[in-house]
Structure formats: structure tokens, C-alpha cells
Automatic annotation (TrEMBL):
This is Citrate synthase. The active site is at 307, 364. Pfam families: Citrate_synt (PF00285). The keyword Membrane does not apply. Belongs to the citrate synthase family. GO terms for molecular function: citrate synthase activity. It catalyses: oxaloacetate + acetyl-CoA + H2O = citrate + CoA + H(+). One of its GO terms (biological process) is tricarboxylic acid cycle. It comes from the Bacteria.
Amino acid sequence: MSSSAQLKIGDKTYDLPIIEGTEGEKAIDISKLRDQSGFVTLDIGYKNTGATQSGITFLDGELGVLKYRGYAIEQLAEKSTFIEVAYLLIYGDLPTTKQLTDFQYEISRHTLVHEDMKKFFDGFPSKSHPMGQLSSLVCSLSAFYPESLKSNQTKEELNLSIVKMLSKMATIVSWIYKKSLGHPVMYPQNKYDYVTNFLNMTFGQLTEDVVIDPVVVSAMNTLLILHADHEQNCSTSTVRIVGSSESNIYASVSAGISALWGPLHGGANQAVIEMLEKIKEDGGDTDKWINKAKDKNDPFRLMGFGHRVYKNFDPRAKIIKKACDDILEKLGINDEVLEIAKRLEEVALKDPYFVERKLYPNVDFYSGIIYRALGFPTDMFTVLFALGRLPGWIAQWKEMKQNKEPIGRPRQIYNGAVNREYVEIDKR
Ligand code: SDX
């Protein structure tokens, strides 16, 4: 293949370099296009536009491939732990025993959040959405750790900010849940590993010893691994562009949490369960709801279906679907919405509307069913997605800084009014 593309505009031809990634993806480098031709490109929603070159996560939407730092998601979901995957994403390689022990120890040193954070917790209405609380509370960490505001952090300072972000997120998430119940918060127990500690703070009680079921720990590890990164999705792109202005890690992650909140993105896992519950209350008529999703005049969409990149299947959905059956069986739970979900999937995958548009279940379609089985309320599901995605956000933010990428500032095509003269208000 030629090393450049030719773009012909009028009687001029422009040579644009072709870039090929290590997995064979190809791009036309247009970084000098405007200087050469005066033209910019337009690609609303960035469906065809790469924002960066990254060595963290690779997706192949046609083949349903997802790899973190070259390791297949199927192997990591089966063999690794969430904190080991966090290390892999952030530092680039699977850790040795010593590296993992040191990493877990460092994290355990910073699991407490400043007691003054409770004043923010107390200020939220008891039924305020957990994602709004999480975004605010994570951003407020920058107030307690002003050293994180330095643009040119040393490697040690950057690492400390990363460890604090990872360790305190689990505590904050569990405190948000406890507050929603009106229960006293639980404090971290550094004898536990990261996921067990989180589950103990979430489901533990001051009034009695609660044993965290290893089945729940294993399921939580799998779910968090599957959510850990996903290349330049909406929330990760947000974290990168906010970080590109040299905003600190807490503010950048807080922005990512806000982007993830939307029902078209991370909020879909909550929307899926709400949809399944509505179908159940409506008598479980899956055909009726499939037809609503296909009806252009009906705003209803089949939540948990479709993906910007996966046009075959979402490998994470396949793993979660199997985990659903395993976990519900182990916990002895028979959840009617799981049966409705399976019927929806079965019908949709045969329906030409979905087949033609390559709409398959995505990561959010089954995850809510497991979260519910593990005891989480629906409005905590997207917060759990954020907890899982945190290592990916951190890794991508760190890569952007280490690559010294310029501040993100897209162009536009102006299509508004031209040359209007100011008119005094009494003459309008
Ligand atoms: C996540 O990017 C990532 O990597 C995200 C994520 C991650 O890990 O970070 O994977 C996590 O966000 C998963 C997606 C969760 N969202 C949902 O499940 C919400 C429901 N799905 C969609 O709204 C939609 O599929 C998107 C937003 C996920 C993708 O939208 P696109 O790529 O912009 O596609 P589109 O909206 O242009 O849809 C193409 C066609 C349209 O029909 P036509 O105009 O061609 O007739 O497919 C239709 C859409 O109407 N369509 C759906 C549908 N999704 C798309 N029709 C019914 N139900 C749906 N769910």
C-alpha cells in the first residue's frame, strides 16, 4: 500500500501520509491539511476520526476483539484480578509478584478519604443520583491534595496521585451507597484485597460481622475487569481532552464520570434494567417492545443493544451473559428479567431491523442483572461502571500526558448569521 493518500481539490493534489498501527489499522494523517489546503474535515460524532495513537487497548469491531495491552479480554477475565489489570493498563505490563504486592500495599495506604469529605456527603439530598455525587466528590479530592494541581508532576508525584485516585474511589463509591440507605459508612480494612475491601465497605455492617461471599468477589472482579478500558469511548475521550488542558487527574476523572452518566453510554446499564422491569410489568411481551424499538416514530430504543464500534458482537457481553447464568445459579437466584433479556436477545438477533443495522447486545445488556443479583440497587450500576473504568481513564490520561499531546481543540464549520449590525433594543 502507498505510504500516502492523494486528495484532489480543484486543480491541486495534496499528499497526506498514511499511518498503520501494530494491529493493521490504517489512518490518513490530516494534521497538516488546513495549513496546506485551507480545508478542515467534518465528522460529527467522530465516527471516522482518530483523536490519538494509543498503546493501551485495541478493539476490532468487526471481529469482536478486545485486548488490553495485547492481552485478550477472555484470558484476563478468566485468569486475572481487577487490581492486576489496573496495573497492566496503567504501567503497560503484567506485574511481577513483588510489583503487584507493592502496588496493592501502596493502594492500601491511601484508602481513607479525608474526614471533611463527609461534609460534602451530608450536603447531598438522600435520593440524589449517585453519579452526580461521585463526579462532585472525585473533583473535590483536588481540594484535599493540592499537590495534584501541579502540571509538571514528578514521576513519584504522578504515581501518588494515581494511587490515591484508585484507592479513594472505592471508598467514595461505598460511602455513596451507605448514605443512600441511611446507614453508617464502613471504613476500609487494609487486610483485604481491593475488591473484597470495596464489597466489605459496601455490604458490611457496624452492627454485625458480614462474610463477603467469594462468589461475589469473583463476579465483581470479572465485571470490573470487563469495564476497565475501551479505547477512545465518550468518557475516555472526555478524560483525555480535559487532561490536555493540564487539568489535574481528579478534575479529569470527574469529567469522565459526568460523560459516562448518559443513558447512551455508561448509564445504559441502569436503563437496561429499567427497560426490562417495564417489559415485565407490561406482561413480558417482548415482540411489542421490539416493534417499538424499530418504530422510527417511537423514541424507545432497545437499551443495551448496539455499539459505535462492535458491529458483530461485544465480547464483554458474551462473557457477562455466561457469568449471569453461573452467578445466579450459585447464588440460587431466579431473576425473571434475565429470562426476558434472553428472549429479547433471541428475537432481536433474528429480526432484519437489528441484523441489517448490526445491533447486538453490548456490555450493558447483561451487567445490570449481575449487579442486581449481587445486591446493588439500579441507580448504583453506572457508579460501578465508573469504578471499573477508572484504571482505563487513568492509563489514557497518563499516556496523553507522557506523549505531551497538545491541548484538544477541534475545528468547526460555521453556518450561522453573517455580518449583522447591532440594533438598539427599542428598535428591535
Ligand atoms: C457503552 O464507545 C464505547 O466503547 C462505549 C462502551 C464502553 O465500554 O465505553 O462500550 C459502553 O456506552 C455501550 C453502549 C451503551 N448504550 C446503549 O446500549 C444505548 C442504546 N444504544 C444506542 O443508542 C446506540 O446503539 C449507540 C449509542 C450505542 C451507538 O449509536 P451509533 O453508533 O451512533 O449508531 P446510531 O445511533 O447512528 O444508530 C444506527 C441505526 C439507527 O437507525 P437508522 O437511522 O439507520 O434507521 O441503528 C439504530 C438507530 O436508530 N439503533 C437502534 C439502537 N441503536 C441504534 N435502534 C433501536 N435500539 C437501539 N438500541
